[in-house]
Design goal:
heterotrimer; A mainly alpha; B alpha/beta; C mainly alpha; A: two-stranded antiparallel sheet; C: mainly alpha; two-stranded antiparallel ribbon; 14 helices; 4 strands; globular
Chain lengths: 324, 351, 317
C-alpha cells in the first residue's frame, strides 16, 4: 500500500478523515456511541434528510441551490396524507410526488430559462409552498388513517428489516442510483461541466439550460419523496414541517461533505458523509446530555470547525483546480 | 506543518467535546436535544447503564422519560423545563429530559429512544397533537405507561395514553372570552392575534373563544398570527389600528401575554387605550398580573408553568408505580384575572 | 427623440423603483385605509430596522458573500441592549451593543475573508452560535426596560413632527452607507473584490481585509437596527430576530444586487425592503389570511425580479 497515495486520497476526500476523527473521538469519549443500536438509529433518523440531500447534491454540483425544500416537504406530506381519504394512499403519494416535481419544474424554468437568481427563485417558492401548504392544511395537521392503506402507510414509516428501517433501505437504493447517474451517464458528466464553468460548458455544446432544469426537477422530486416519507414516519403531516431551516441543514450536509457550493465538485458519497456527520454530531450532543443552548452553540462551532479542517487538509493541487 | 495543524485541530475538537461532556455530566444539566440517545442493548456492552446515568442529578429508582416541545423557545416553556428538572432532583427521580426544539419528527425519534432506554413512564408534550399519536401508540405497544403534558394528543390518540395533565387550552380560551363578554357586552367587534401558525395550543384557545362567543353578536373582524414574537404582534396590531379606525373595534383577543404586550405597545402608541381593550387567552408569566392590575390587560387566564410541570411529574411517578390515574383529564387550575380581582387573586405559592 | 430614449433608459434602469411604486399604487387603489398618511408613516417605521440591516448586507453581498447570521445577531444585540440599559445606563448599553455587533462581524469576516471558508455555511454556524448566546444571556426569558418611556425608547417610538425618529435615522444612515459605497476608496474596493477576486490581488487590494470590513459593517448596521427595534417595544425576546436574515437578503436581491458579487446599490436595497414592508402592511390591511400573504409575496418577488432582469438585459443587449 502506497502511503503517499493514501494521503493524497484522504486530502482529496476530506470528509473521510474528518469522519474518522469524529468517530474515534466519539467512541472514546462518549458512552453509548459505539453501540450497534445507536449507530443504526442515527442512520435511520437521518435517512429522510439524506434522500433530500441526494437531490440537493445534483443541484449544488450544478452550481445552484434550492431553498424551497423546507416548505415543499410540508406541502407534499400534506397532499399524501390529505388525499388519502378521497383517492386512496397510493394515488395520494403519486400526487404528492407530482407536486414536488412541479415545484422542481418551476424552480428549474425560472432559474435555467428565465435566468433569475436561484436564491430569489427558491426563496420565493419557499414562501409560496409555505402558503399553499398552510392553505391545504387549514392550519391543522392531517393524519392518513381513514383507510387501511393509510394505516399501512403509517406502519411503513416505523417498519424495519433487522436494524435498518425501510426508509433507510430506500435511501441506500437511491444513493446507488444517484451515484450511477452522476458518474456514468451523460447527464451526470454534463452536470459537473455546467457547475464547473457554465460558459465553457455552453461553448462545448452542452444544453446548459436543460441540464440545470433537469437537476432542479430531480431535487424537487426527491424533496417530495422526503416529505412523503416524513409523513409516513411521523404518522401525520403538519404545516410546520421543515420550517424554518431544513433546507439549510440539507445544504450544510452536502457542503460539509465536500461538494463545493460554487459547483463542479462533489459526489454522492460526500453527501452521505456530510449528512451523517451532522447526524452524528446531534447524537453526540444527545448522549452527552448537553443542555439545549450549549448544543446549538457547539453545533454551530463544529460546522465552522469542520469547514476549517476541510480547508486545511485539502491538497494544494486540488485547491488550485477548484478555483475558490 | 499540515500534520501539526491537524493535530492541533483534533486536540481542539477533543477539548471542546470533553468540555461539553464535563458541563453535561457535572451537576445540573440533564437535558439533551435532537438525535438518538439509545444505547446498545444487543451487544451486551457497558454502555447500556451509562446513558441513563448521564441524566438529572440523583439516580433514583424511577426512570422517567420526558420529551418537551421547545424548551428554549419562550419563557413559559423555559420555566416549565427548569421546574421539572429541579423537581425531579428534589424527588430523587432519574429524569431523562429531551428537547426536540419544536420539530415533530425529532420528537418521534426521541420517544423511540426513551422506549429503548426502558423508562418506567414516559411523558410527552406533543409538538403537534396529531403527530403525537404515532409516538403514543409506540409507547403503549412497548407496555410503558404513557401520559401527555400541557398539550394533549388528538382524540384518535387518547386510547394510547393513560391520562393528560395540564391546562385545558379550550377552557382557558373560553373563560377569558366569557370575561370579555362581560366586559364589552355581546354586541362588539373584535380582532384576534393568534400564536405561531399551526401551533395546537393556539388553535385550541382560539376554538375556546369561538365557542364562548357563539350565539352572541360578537364579530371577529380579523385574525392574523403574531408568530409568538412580540415585535411582530406589535406590527400586526399597528396594521389593525390603521385598518379599523376609532370606534370600529372594541377589543383584541390575543393568544398569550407576550402577544398582549406587543398589542399594548401599539395601542398605547396610537393613543387608543380607551378605545381598544386587550384580552389575553392565557398568560404564563407572573409579571402579567401587574399588567392586569394596571388595567392594560382586561382579563387573562393565569397559567403557572411551575404548577403545570410539577403536576405532570407527580402523575408520572404515580404511573411508574403502577397506579392508575383517577381522572383522564387532569386540568390544572387556571384562574381568570381581571383588574377587579387581581389584587385578591390567590395564585398559590407555586408561582 | 434622444431625450425620450434617455428617459426610457432611465426608467428601465430603475425597474425596481417602478415596481415599488406600482405595488404601492395597487394597494392605494384597493384600500381606503391604506392611503392614509398615518399608514405611510407606519410603513416607514416598520421598514427602519430592515432597511438599515439591508444597507450593511449590501456591502457583504457586493463582496460576494452571504451573512446569514444577521437575524440571530439582531436578537443578541437587542437582548444585550435592553438588559444592560437599566444597569449601566442607555448610552453605555448602546456602545456595548455596537461593539457586540462589530465583534460578530470581525469574527465572521475573519472566517470568510482570511480563512476563505464558505460564507453560507460559516454564517449558518455563526447563526447557531449567536442564537445560543442570546438565549444563554437571558436564560430563555425576555427582558424588559423598567421604564417603558425612557428616552431610549424615543428612538423607536418618537417622532419629530410627523416624521418618526427611526425614519430620520434610517434615511441618514442609508445616505451615509450609499455615499460610502459609491464615493470612497473602500466602496470601490469592495465592488472590485466582489467582481473579480484574483484581479484585485494583483492590483494590490488586500481583499481579505476588504471582505472582513464588509462583515463588520453588516454587524454594525445590525446593531443599530437592533436598537431601533427593541426601543419600539422597550423589551426584547431572545428569538426576536428569527428569519430576519431572509427578509434582509430578499430586500438586497430585489434591489438588484448580484448574488455573485460585484454590483449592488444601497438605495435600491432600501427600495427592495420597502417593497417587502409595503406588501406586509398592505396584506394585513386588505385582510388577506397570513398564508395567502406568503403566496402573494412569492408571486410579487418573482415578478419584480423578472421585470428587473428583463430591464437589465435589454439595456445590456
Amino acid at each position: 500500500m502506497d502511503l503517499k497515495k493514501i494521503k493524497t486520497y484522504l486530502s482529496n476526500n476530506t470528509i473521510i478523515p474528518i469522519w474518522i476523527v469524529f468517530f474515534v473521538l466519539a467512541s472514546i469519549i462518549v458512552n453509548g456511541f459505539l453501540g450497534v443500536n445507536n449507530l443504526f438509529n442515527v442512520f435511520n433518523q437521518n435517512a429522510m434528510k439524506g434522500i433530500m440531500a441526494i437531490g440537493m447534491t445534483f443541484v449544488i454540483i450544478n452550481g445552484y441551490f434550492d431553498m424551497s425544500l423546507c416548505t415543499a416537504v410540508s406541502l407534499t406530506a400534506a397532499l399524501a396524507c390529505g388525499l388519502e381519504s378521497s383517492i386512496g394512499i397510493v394515488p395520494a403519494i403519486i400526487a404528492a410526488l407530482l407536486a414536488g416535481t412541479l415545484v422542481g419544474c418551476i424552480n428549474g424554468v425560472l432559474v435555467a430559462y428565465a435566468k433569475i437568481n436561484a436564491f430569489v427563485v427558491t426563496l420565493a417558492m419557499m414562501l409560496g409552498c409555505r402558503g399553499v401548504a398552510y392553505l391545504y392544511h387549514k392550519e391543522q395537521s392531517i393524519i392518513p388513517n381513514k383507510t387501511d392503506g393509510g394505516w399501512a402507510f403509517i406502519d411503513f414509516g416505523a417498519g424495519k428489516i433487522g436494524q435498518l428501517s425501510y426508509i433507510s433501505i430506500i435511501f441506500i437504493i437511491l444513493l446507488l442510483i444517484a451515484h450511477y447517474i452522476l458518474k456514468y451517464t451523460t447527464h451526470g458528466r454534463n452536470t459537473y461541466a455546467v457547475g464547473g464553468n457554465e460558459n465553457s460548458a455552453f461553448n462545448a455544446g452542452i444544453n446548459t439550460q436543460r441540464v440545470t432544469f433537469i437537476n432542479f426537477v430531480i431535487c424537487g422530486f426527491l424533496g417530495g419523496l422526503g416529505g412523503v416519507l416524513y409523513a409516513s414516519f411521523a404518522g401525520a403531516s403538519t404545516p410546520t414541517l421543515g420550517w424554518p431551516d431544513m433546507h439549510m441543514l440539507v445544504i450544510a450536509g452536502v457542503v460539509l461533505g465536500g461538494s463545493k457550493l460554487t459547483g463542479g465538485v462533489g459526489n454522492i458519497w460526500y453527501t452521505l458523509g456530510g449528512v451523517m456527520l451532522l447526524g452524528v454530531i446531534d447524537n453526540i450532543m444527545n448522549l452527552l446530555n448537553v443542555q439545549t443552548y450549549i448544543c446549538t452553540m457547539v453545533t454551530g462551532m463544529i460546522m465552522i470547525g469542520v469547514l476549517y479542517l476541510d480547508k486545511i487538509m485539502m491538497n494544494k493541487r486540488t485547491e488550485k483546480a477548484n478555483l475558490e | 506543518m499540515k500534520k501539526k495543524l491537524l493535530a492541533m485541530i483534533s486536540l481542539t475538537l477533543t477539548a471542546s467535546i470533553a468540555l461539553t461532556g464535563c458541563i453535561g455530566n457535572g451537576g445540573n444539566q440533564s437535558s439533551s436535544t435532537g438525535g438518538s440517545a439509545a444505547s446498545d442493548s444487543a451487544g451486551g456492552s457497558d454502555t447500556a447503564g451509562d446513558a441513563a446515568d448521564d441524566s438529572a442529578g440523583g439516580s433514583g429508582d424511577h426512570l422517567i422519560g420526558m420529551v418537551v416541545n421547545n424548551g428554549g423557545q419562550d419563557p413559559y416553556q423555559t420555566a416549565y423545563y427548569n421546574t421539572i428538572k429541579d423537581k425531579a432532583k428534589e424527588m430523587n427521580i432519574n429524569l431523562q429530559l429531551l428537547d426536540p426544539v419544536g420539530d415533530a419528527t425529532t420528537q418521534a425519534n426521541q420517544v423511540q429512544d426513551l422506549i429503548n432506554m426502558k423508562c418506567d413512564a414516559i411523558i410527552i408534550w406533543p409538538v403537534n397533537s396529531e403527530t403525537g399519536v404515532a409516538s403514543a401508540r409506540a409507547v403503549q405497544k412497548a407496555s410503558i405507561p404513557c401520559m401527555t403534558a400541557n398539550t394533549n394528543v388528538s382524540a384518535d390518540g387518547e386510547e394510547f395514553i393513560k391520562c393528560y395533565v395540564g391546562p385545558s387550552n379550550v377552557e382557558e380560551g373560553k373563560q377569558t372570552a366569557e370575561a370579555m363578554l362581560e366586559n364589552i357586552g355581546e354586541d362588539a367587534k373584535i380582532v384576534e392575534i393568534t400564536g405561531p401558525a399551526g401551533y395546537s395550543t393556539s388553535l385550541e384557545r382560539s376554538q375556546g373563544m369561538k365557542e364562548a362567543i357563539e350565539g352572541t353578536n360578537i364579530e371577529v373582524l380579523d385574525s392574523q398570527t403574531g408568530e409568538g414574537n412580540r415585535e411582530k404582534c406589535q406590527q400586526v396590531m399597528e396594521n389593525y389600528l390603521v385598518k379599523y379606525g376609532k370606534g370600529e373595534i372594541d377589543a383584541v383577543y390575543t393568544f398569550d401575554d407576550n402577544a398582549a404586550y406587543g398589542a399594548w405597545n401599539a395601542i398605547e402608541a396610537a393613543g387608543r387605550q380607551d378605545d381598544v381593550k386587550i384580552f389575553a387567552a392565557a398568560s404564563g408569566s407572573y409579571g402579567t398580573i401587574n399588567y392586569v392590575k394596571d388595567g392594560k390587560i382586561q382579563a387573562t387566564a393565569m397559567q403557572s408553568p411551575h404548577f403545570d410541570a410539577e403536576s405532570a411529574l407527580e402523575m408520572a411517578v404515580k404511573l411508574a408505580d403502577g397506579e392508575e390515574p383517577e381522572e383522564f383529564y387532569n386540568y390544572i387550575d387556571t384562574p381568570v384575572a381581571t383588574p377587579d380581582n387581581a389584587d385578591s387573586l390567590d395564585l398559590g405559592e407555586e408561582w | 427623440m434622444q431625450s425620450q430614449k434617455n428617459f426610457t433608459a432611465t426608467l428601465k434602469k430603475q425597474g425596481i423603483v417602478l415596481a415599488m411604486i406600482l405595488v404601492y399604487l395597487v394597494f392605494v387603489v384597493i384600500s381606503a385605509q391604506f392611503r392614509t398618511f398615518n399608514n405611510f408613516i407606519l410603513i416607514l417605521r416598520q421598514a427602519a430596522t430592515l432597511a438599515i440591516m439591508g444597507a450593511g448586507m449590501t456591502y457583504v453581498i457586493i463582496g460576494g458573500s452571504f451573512d446569514l447570521s444577521v437575524g440571530s445577531l439582531l436578537s443578541l444585540c437587542s437582548v444585550v441592549c435592553i438588559s444592560l440599559h437599566d444597569s449601566i445606563g442607555p448610552v453605555p448599553a448602546m456602545i456595548i451593543t455596537i461593539l457586540v455587533g462589530c465583534a460578530s462581524g470581525i469574527l465572521s469576516g475573519y472566517l470568510v475573508g482570511y480563512l476563505k471558508l464558505n460564507s453560507m455555511i460559516v454564517t449558518l454556524g455563526m447563526m447557531n452560535v449567536l442564537q445560543a448566546a442570546a438565549l444563554m444571556w437571558t436564560n430563555g426569558k425576555f427582558v424588559e426596560l423598567r421604564d417603558s418611556n425612557a428616552w431610549f425608547t424615543k428612538l423607536g417610538k418618537g417622532s419629530i413632527g410627523p416624521i418618526p425618529v427611526s425614519t430620520v435615522i434610517m434615511i441618514i444612515f442609508v445616505i451615509i452607507m450609499a455615499t460610502l459605497l459609491m464615493k470612497t476608496v473602500y466602496g470601490h474596493q469592495i465592488m472590485a473584490v466582489g467582481g473579480n477576486d484574483e484581479a484585485c490581488r494583483y492590483s494590490g487590494i488586500n481583499s481579505k481585509m476588504v471582505v472582513l470590513k464588509s462583515f463588520v459593517i453588516s454587524g454594525f448596521c445590525t446593531a443599530i437596527g437592533a436598537m431601533l427595534l427593541c426601543s419600539r417595544g422597550a423589551a426584547a425576546q431572545p428569538t426576536l430576530g428569527e428569519s430576519y436574515e431572509f427578509d434582509v437578503i430578499a430586500g438586497v436581491i430585489l434591489g438588484g444586487a448580484s448574488l455573485n458579487g460585484g454590483s449592488g446599490n444601497v438605495y435600491k436595497t432600501m427600495v427592495g425592503i420597502l417593497i417587502l414592508t409595503i406588501l406586509d402592511n398592505g396584506f394585513v390591511i386588505i385582510g388577506l389570511p397570513y398564508y395567502l400573504q406568503w403566496v402573494a409575496q412569492c408571486v410579487v418577488i418573482l415578478i419584480a425580479v423578472y421585470i428587473d432582469i428583463r430591464a437589465k438585459r435589454k439595456k445590456g443587449a
